[in-house]
Amino acid sequence: MRTVLCIFCLLFGVNLQAAEAWKASSEERQLNEKRAMRSTSSLHSSEKDSLPAKQLSKRPQTTDSGDFWIYDAWIELNKDTDRDGFYSGFTLSIDVDSHFAQAPVYARLYLGKNDSFREYHSTSDFFVNGQSSDDFFEVSTELLEGFADNDYEILIELYDADRNELVAVYDSFDDEDLLYLPLESRDYEYNQVVVVRETSGGSTGLLSLIPLALLCCYRFKRG
Fold it and tell me: Are 156 and 30 in contact (CB under 8 A)?
């Protein structure tokens, strides 16, 4: 079926990559407390009030209100099952600051390349405590489907949860740690197959010559 679909795409110029679905599973933590775990997909989810993940064709723009900003973000890579240097799991930590003593926010997280981004997680609401560095928010993600092995960039949209308003955008232009991340989804992980080929001249080849040599010696003696 996939072969037929590929032939159809080649004949009619359909971009199969653009139509490919993607899926990821993420777990959230703040102040060492587990908060939520959910899956994000480009398809409709069975979860209540869950919408398909967004896809961005260009970097979003926002007017900086000055009330919220992302002070820092950092990445920890894990889960390279096939040991090819591309990881299906990673943890993103975000340190959000605000002029308010305490305020709720949420973030939409994207993976992309060449200024095209796909949402892999939308966080639950979490509180920012002024300019404290102790309230950083962690999202541990496993990419499940649709992300071929490549060097990806992470883009973060930060929203004021009270007003549902985009208040900050953070990407590799702000922090190089978010660029050139070697990632792939779990469906691109594979087990390496070792192929053993027999060649002449080895130990097996030499052993096979012994009966022939004995036969020649026997005929030589009889002659």
Answer: no
pLDDT computed for residue 142 by the predictor: 96
Mean pLDDT of each 10-residue bin along the chain, 223 residues long? 42 44 93 72 51 85 82 95 94 96 96 94 94 93 95 97 94 96 93 51 54 55 51
Q: Would you say how long the chain is, in residues? A: 223
Angstrom CA distances, 89 to 1, 76, 85, 105, 167, stand at 30, 9, 12, 25, 28
| C-alpha 131: how far from chain center | 30
**Other C-beta atoms lying within 10 Å of the C-beta of residue 99:** 13
Q: What is the DSSP letter of 217?
A: H
Residues 6+ apart with CB under 8 A from 115: 57, 58, 59
Q: What is the pLDDT of residue 10?
A: 41
Check residue 199 and give its pLDDT.
52
Task: Estimate to the nearest angstrom the gap between the alpha carbon of 46 and the chain centroid.
Answer: 22
Q: Report the 3 state secondary structure along 4-44.
A: HHHHHHHHHCCCHHHHCCCEEEEEEEECCEEEEEEEEECCC
pTM of the full structure? 0.73
Q: Give strand ranges (E) for the chain.
A: 23-30, 33-41, 55-56, 68-78, 89-98, 103-113, 116-122, 126-128, 137-145, 150-160, 165-170, 181-183
pLDDT at res. 9: 41
What distance in Å separates the CA atoms of residue 41 and residue 145, rounded to the nearest whole number? Answer: 9
